[in-house]
């Protein structure tokens, strides 16, 4: 819902100032439409439904994976595709993965989103509407900006959405923003007044390899990105999560792990290893290589987790969001 449009529509009707708040509270708690907002006069509900679309996104289709992961494909009013994912974990947590852009202008070689056409930055309302869609299906408690796009290229909209997420049940501490290391956004992120988590997509321990996998590294090289993360840590006293997708024979050897361990200060970084999800380009590292990589990092004192793969059967896993592309793998 476009909250600015809502406020304008209410003001134009001479409605009292608290109406916008009322509408938002119903929406944040998962109302399916204006008709459910019984604390509003019926005539107002009716006329709002005509003038302020309940969502800025139109749902095109939903795919349900065997593990309970749901991938939703939406379209913006100007026709751009957007995907978001909901994952339910065994302990009952429900985590949302939200897109910050339609497509992505960066062209990381292992990520399907980078292969589709870049559309545009999404608005704060379009970010919230992805989360609200899933909120209508039940409680939600975590949100990661790890869908399509680079959130730190669209930081203002991301922060607008983050400010509202607690009312959906998602606290700032359970919200995470992931970046390739987009420096202008990263430097601003350190000054944000909400305790949102930071994740850095690193994927290689040296510039040559990283530039090959992620062309953005030519623009913002490793040393500068890590310096910005260290500054964030110094300022916020929060650990940075390093994401590292393991590509067989490319970045998954023990010498890569050793180089990574030398690069990362264990007081600042935790490592999250990501098994590669097929996008048609690389091969996934075998479990033994993942275990050896992990052990090398742990011997150096780093804290390491391996991401649990979700939603692969409906192309909803990390790196597979490509808007209506047929499921791969
Ligand atoms: N642009 C931001 C936000 C997207 S997060 C960023 O890159 O951090 C998406 C995460 O999934 C990133 O860590 C990305 O590197 C990872 N990823 C991309 N392609 C993948 C693939 N094929 N398999 C596993 N992880 C992948």
Describe the structure.
The protein is an alpha/beta fold and 329 residues long. The protein has two domains: 1-54, Orthogonal Bundle (DNA polymerase, domain 1); 56-314, TIM Barrel, CATH 3.20.20.70. Helix content is 33%, strand content 18%. It contains eleven helices and ten strands. It has helices at 3-12, 18-28, 42-51, 124-135, 155-164, 183-189, 207-213, 216-219, 222-236, 254-263, 287-299; strands at residues 57-64, 70-76, 81-88, 94-97, 142-145, 175-179, 197-201, 240-246, 269-275, 303-306. The chain has a ten-stranded mixed β-sheet. Helix 4 runs parallel beside helix 5 (155-164), helix 6 runs parallel beside helix 9 and helix 10 (254-263) runs parallel beside helix 11 (287-299). The longest helix is centred in the C-terminal third of the chain and has 15 residues, at 222-236. The radius of gyration is 21 Å and the shape is elongated. Mean pLDDT is 95; it is low at 325-329. S-adenosyl-L-homocysteine binds at residues 110-111, 146, 150-151, 178-180, 201, 243, 245, 274, 276-277, 279, 318-319.
From the structure above, extract its key features:
elongated; alpha/beta; DNA polymerase, domain 1; 329 residues; 18% strand; disordered C terminus; binds S-adenosyl-L-homocysteine; 11 helices
């Amino acid at each position: 819902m476009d909250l600015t449009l809502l406020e304008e529509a209410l003001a134009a009707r001479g409605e009292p100032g608290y109406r916008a708040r009322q509408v938002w509270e119903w929406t944040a708690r998962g109302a399916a439409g204006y008709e459910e907002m019984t604390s509003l006069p019926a005539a107002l509900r009716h006329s709002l439904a005509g003038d302020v679309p309940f969502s800025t996104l139109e749902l095109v289709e939903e795919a349900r994976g065997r593990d309970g992961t749901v991938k939703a494909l939406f379209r913006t009013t100007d026709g751009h595709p957007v995907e978001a994912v909901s994952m339910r974990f065994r302990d009952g947590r429900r985590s949302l993965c939200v897109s910050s852009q339609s497509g992505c202008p960066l062209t990381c070689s292992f990520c399907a989103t980078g292969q589709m056409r870049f559309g545009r930055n999404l608005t704060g309302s379009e970010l919230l509407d992805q989360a609200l869609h899933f909120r209508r299906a039940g409680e939600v408690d975590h949100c990661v900006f790890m869908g399509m796009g680079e959130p730190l290229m669209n930081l203002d909209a991301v922060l607008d959405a983050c400010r509202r997420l607690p009312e959906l049940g998602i606290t700032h501490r359970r919200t995470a923003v992931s970046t390739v290391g987009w420096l202008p956004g990263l430097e601003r992120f350190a000054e944000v007044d909400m305790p949102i988590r930071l994740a850095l997509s690193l994927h290689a321990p040296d510039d040559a390899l990283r530039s090959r996998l992620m062309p953005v590294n030519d623009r913002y090289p490793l040393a500068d990105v890590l310096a910005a993360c260290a500054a964030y840590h110094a300022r916020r006293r929060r650990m940075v999560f390093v994401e590292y997708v393991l590509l067989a024979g490319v970045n998954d050897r023990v010498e890569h792990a050793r180089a990574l361990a030398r690069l990362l200060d264990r007081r600042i970084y935790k490592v999250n290893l990501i098994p590669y999800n097929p996008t048609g380009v690389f091969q996934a590292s075998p479990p033994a290589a993942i275990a050896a990589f992990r052990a090398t990092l742990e011997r150096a004192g780093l804290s390491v987790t391996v991401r649990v793969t979700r939603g692969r059967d409906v192309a909803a896993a990390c790196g597979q969001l490509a808007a209506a592309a047929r499921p791969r793998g």
